[in-house]
Amino acid sequence: MERNELLGVIKEEQEKNGYVSEGAMGDMAKSFGVTVGEVYGVTTFYSFLSTKPMGRHVIRICKSVPCFLQNGEGLAASIEKEIGIGPGETTADGRFTFERTNCIGACDQAPAMLLDDVVYGNLTPGKIKEILQSCD
Amino acid sequence: MIRDLEDKTVPEKRILLSKVDQIDPGDIQSYENQGGFNALKKALGMSAEAVTQEVKASGLRGRGGAGFPCGVKWELAMKSPGEVKYLICNADEGEVGTFKDRCILQQNPFSLLEGMAITAYAIGAGKGYIYLRAEYRYLLDGLQKAIKQCEEKGYLKNIEIEIREGAGAYICGEESALMNSIEGKRGESRFRPPFPPQSGLFEKPTIINNVETLANVPPIIENGAAWYAAMGTEQSKGTKLFCVSGDVERPGVYEMELGSSLRELVDVAGAKDIGWVQVGGSTGAIIPSDMLETALSYETVLGSGAVMVFKPSRDVIDFVYRTMEFLNEESCGKCTPCREGNEVMVEILGRLVNGEGAEGDLEALQDLSETMKVSSLCGLGQSASVPVLDTLKYFKTDYENRISQSVLLRSLKAVNG
User: Fold this and answer.
1) Chain A residues with CB within 8 Å of chain B CB
2) Is B4:B14 a contact under the CB 8 Å cutoff?
3) For a designed S-S bond to B98, which of A35, B67, B74, B306 qualifies (C-beta 3.0 to 4.6 A apart)?
């Protein structure tokens, strides 16, 4: 495989297994002919890649200034209340991982979040509750 | 969100957004019905040099934030020796408060693809990449379908376009970090020279342009450089997409002629009570309420076109702290001034926010700002201190009060035990 495909392969692994394990990084290092350190270096550089298992659904609440101005913090607090975990944590049943993220380009719909690949805007604690309840 | 034009008092000038309400982003025919791809046909009838000269004469400059003259860049790539050249569309719109490229990708992807086909012809690139940020994954399908339709209609005969997705990194909007990311590496900035038109992606001559810049190319070719250059100011030609957010009634994307005043724009977006405005994103300039007549242009303030409005009751130091926290998190860490400088700034500002300021803090912020500006490797570190320096200039009393309160509080505690 060509070296430039490494990031794509890591992304695929992330999507397939919900994280990039040590074993997977070792296999990639072999097939690309690079060190494990290099694979690890690329994986940990990007915020959408994780070396720890993530939940089935990843909630990313925007913490950048335009969302902050529209009560993004209150929104984050309501998530903690709703699913009982703080930023960077995963629920015990593996259903959700909760993260704070930087600007997702939905500032016209602030406060906003990404739930997996879908963007939700003009959020309120009530709306979030509904959205999360509809997740499997 | 693009606002409808029912309100005729809106001082918008629409070129990029002129036909969006008549275009179905899933149907290339709707774009053709509005004259889409006429510019490409015209360009293919011209020499590559003539296309580049037209864009150069139009005065079009980069819309991602840096503002480099587009035609000059193309000329450099065109003249660079070598058979293989690349075109990259920078769709890594990560700048805080910026969502204009999202609107183009979502509502008129064909205009971008037509712009890419013309650009590739001008510089002689056979392969083009669209680097799409991970946060915009929901736009991937639509974009892929648009590319497929263009291919089927034969509009992409001179260029093969591939989408490469990011994986969550603000710095990858910086051109050299973006190229490292396409090469599958960590998205760290590169030393320059060499510049991308000489040696960029895979060490080949590369042109990298922002989504909005490329979308401007078809109207320029179709209507001519003189038409385009008649709009704007001496060094800022044409129109610009502005993204208004924050304390306004109607946040959204507005297209205005360059040189329009900031007041006109924020009025349109329904700003009522203004304390200050940040123009250009996280590292953008701060404009206090008594300077709203400032023109929006490369000569004055512009950046990516992000316009964040803050009402007077907002805490300016808290805002700067959050901004520096963002930049510190997103610094790629390759050069010391940016990696360490942002860290120390966050530490100082964090103390100010928590009422633990000390004498000498402002001087330290100032010193550090100057150092980072002159010694950082790329735009992130070089411009990270702009909001710090600007707020120190316009809101110095807020900083001073915060420190004197902290000092007073500490001395009272000491006296009372």
Assistant:
1) 3-8, 10-11, 41-42, 45-49, 63-66, 68-69, 101-110, 114, 117-119
2) no
3) B306
Query: For B48-93, how does the pLDDT look when each residue is reduced to its tens digit (9 = 90+)?
Result: 999 999 999 999 999 999 999 999 999 999 999 999 999 999 999 9
Q: What is the pTM of this model?
A: 0.96
Measure CA B174 to chain center.
Answer: 10
Paired tokens of A104: 């997702």
3-state secondary structure of A80: helix
Residue the block writes with tokens 């009560």: A71
Cβ A55 vs Cβ A97: under 8 Å:
yes
The whole-angstrom distance between B40's CA and the closest CA on chain A is 30
If DSSP codes are grouped into helix, strand and coil, which group holds residue A33?
Answer: coil
What tokens does B65 get? 């934030």
CATH topology of domain B317-416: de novo design (two linked rop proteins) (1.20.1440)
Give DSSP secondary structure letters for B115-133. Answer: HHHHHHHHHT-SEEEEEE-
The number of CA neighbours under 13 Å toward the Cβ of A98 is: 19
Say yes or no: domain B20-229 is CATH 3.30.1360.120. Answer: no
**ipTM at complex level:** 0.97
